[in-house]
Amino acid sequence: MPLQGVCWFLCCRQGFSLLGRDYGEKEEEESFELRNKEDLTPNGRTPAEVTVSQPTRSANGTNGHTVSESPDEMKSLIIEKNKMGLEEEPELLVKGWLLREVRGNWIKQRRYWFVLSQDSLDYYSGPEKGARRLGTLVLTSLCSVIWPDKQTFKETGYWSITVYGRKHCYRLYTRHFNEAVHWACAIQKIIDTKAPVETPTQLLIRDIEENKFNPEVVEHIYRHNPILKYTQGPLYAPLLPFPYGSLEHTYHSGKGYGSVREEAVRLFNCLQQLESAREPVPIIQGVLQTCLDLRPLRDEVYCQLVKQTSYTPSPYTAAHLRYWQLLTCMSCTFLPGPNILKYLRFHLKRIQSQSPESEMDNYASFISEALEKTKCRECVPSWEEIQMLMSRQEMLCTVHYPGPGSCQLYISSHTTANEVVRRMQEKLGLQESKNTFALYEQNALWEQPVSGSVLIADILTSFTTKESESKSQWTLCFKLYCLLDADSISVDSIEYFFLFEQCHEMVVRGQLPACEEDLQTLAALRLQCLMGDFSTHAPCPPLDELFPGHMLETRVLMSLSAPQAVPPCQVAAQGCPTPQRFPSGLLTGTLWSHAATTAHKQKVEHDMRLRSRLKEEAAAVMGSIFDRWKGLTGYSCRDSMAAYLTIARQWSGFGCTLYEVDFYISSTGSFSQKLWLGVAATSVSLYKQGESEALESFPYGQICSYGVSDSNTFKITAGDRDLLFETTKLTEIMQLMNAYFSAIHRQRGKGEDADITITESTEVAFHHLSSTQAPMLLELPSHPV
User: Fold this and answer.
1) Lowest-confidence region among 121-130, 132-141, 253-262, 452-461
2) Residues spanned by the domain of 420
3) How far apart are CA 491 and CA 484, in angstroms?
4) What is the number of structural domains in the chain?
5) What is the 3-state secondary structure (H, E, C) of 478-503?
6) Bridge partners of residue 115, in order along the sequence
7) Which phi and psi angles does 545 have, rounded to 5°?
8) Any idea what the CATH number is for the domain that residue 633 is in?
9) Would you say 273 and 283 are in contact if contact means Cβ atoms under 8 Å apart?
10) 658 by DSSP, 3-state: which?
11) Where in this protein does the record put region Disordered (predicted)?
């Protein structure tokens, strides 16, 4: 086989040379779509001087003028370069032997003499004068270099560098690390000295911007440059410049992306598929997801959509309107760069002036308004949101609140959590409340407050993903956030009902320290509020919705783990050494298997006893709760809530939000203790879990600073003490403390009276204020206060 390959190589050498540039052997052409700034004439240029990259096609389908008549005009214009030998090459910078990876042959790496000049990286058959040049990689500002890495060295024994050009990629190898670094530095230095290159699209956009007040010139630009107009043919190169072999996609390599240039061309193909697709939403979602993952492609897609919505042969058909629908989704998801944004706004105004009172005019108006509000999204719009955007409508969002109630609100892609909170307060008549409210995302086992600037559309989209992963339902809930003044809440208001429901949530989670008798009384009051007077026929909620379940589990586990009486014979045998009945050998595996089986049976028996004891304890607790419920006959719902909250208020920390933290006792962090950190309206307190009395309490006036000291450590400085807590709720604690401090500043009217600095530093060192220095609030509250 090797002999046949050599014969084929010798016989077809001339033909292979002609095709060599497609296999990376030669690069003696420049990309047609790129032009150096210094190539422009000193006297300027006219708008029609830009080389076209698409076959000329006017709006009515007739042929127009073209600069190039070549059938490959959409691919490239080849600029020939004089072939020269090694002795004629000027300004040699670096030269030496390197191994190059050659594909398409049984020899993986071949040795060549490489020469780096100011314009290119060439390789020759040898270092002697007159040696034949085998290939050239022209260096421009879009070329890129990948530096040597240890992984390749471990796998191959060579240090490698990779040089990306427009069509070729040179993978070079050497055994010496310093030599690889030297070549990479030299090539990168040449690339950095090259002037930025621009595509014809960029040059034409600049022409349009310069002549936007001259309609005749703008029409002349569009008429003579089909690259700006709709096409049914494919796109062979991006409309904007991207680095060759761009590394942006490597962060998402698991999703199957190629280089940014390749993805740009693929996206245009996806855009064209919209015209004939039966269901456009999956394609639109795919385009948006690619733009979310590969940020540089956002401007490219905007340019492609502007192109496909300009001079369309059939502008009012449903197929053509698909481009406008995708442009609508893009405008509500990503903002283009400043230059492309100007170009897009000009395009929208132009369409509105050319097609007034049309569907395109409606889309253009909607997009213009969206661009004023859009912020970069964290999630790709959901299927429902895309369908709403395609018809330029708003979505219906359901917001729950404590108890069985809910409200439905219409939201757009730009609606934030703060806006929903404000509208919910208006709907429920809570505008005058002294307390603050927030939205929470929650399921049956978990909840987290939503930051005020977060887009509700992103939250709803994330719910779809979470529900598919966890098989649990997620909801948005409107709840009390900062309890600043519980005494002013009217018993007849819905805010009082919120307080009752959220207090009961703390009880069920075990975050209200109380004796078991009080907890049973609270459960009975809860039943009286929900069900009315006791009845044997009334459907009763499960115990875990009335009583903290962890108390039952703790009690049962303690009873099962208590030492039991041991028979006297076993007591006497405990002090004697156990004789080895069988020597280790053939029976060892059998004995081990028997022991494992016995342990498994014991575990199963233990679990059965645990479940049985839990049922017994639950029945006993439920019976006690029913007895107390019977004694509440005649209590109204309002009376039951008032009695419930009266018992809850006996705890000194009533109204605070508890976070489980690891408190570092030593300043070095060598010892820690699991505690509750309670954040309230007037102070921050530390509680031992399950105990009602605070270990320590720090009024806000004593706190000098607080903030995040590293990825999971929260630090509070009170006087001369530094308190360190390790927790997974850093963001929530920061937001809540910020909200409380903002409320305090607002109530005082002026910030000068406050004596605290709020920090959100990732460094361990915190800034402390002197007594004479005016304090500052560095972060605004996450929700309205």
Assistant:
1) 253-262
2) 395-482
3) 16
4) 5
5) EEEEECCCCCCCCCCCHHHHHHHHHH
6) 95, 122
7) -95, 0
8) 1.20.80.10
9) yes
10) strand
11) 32-72
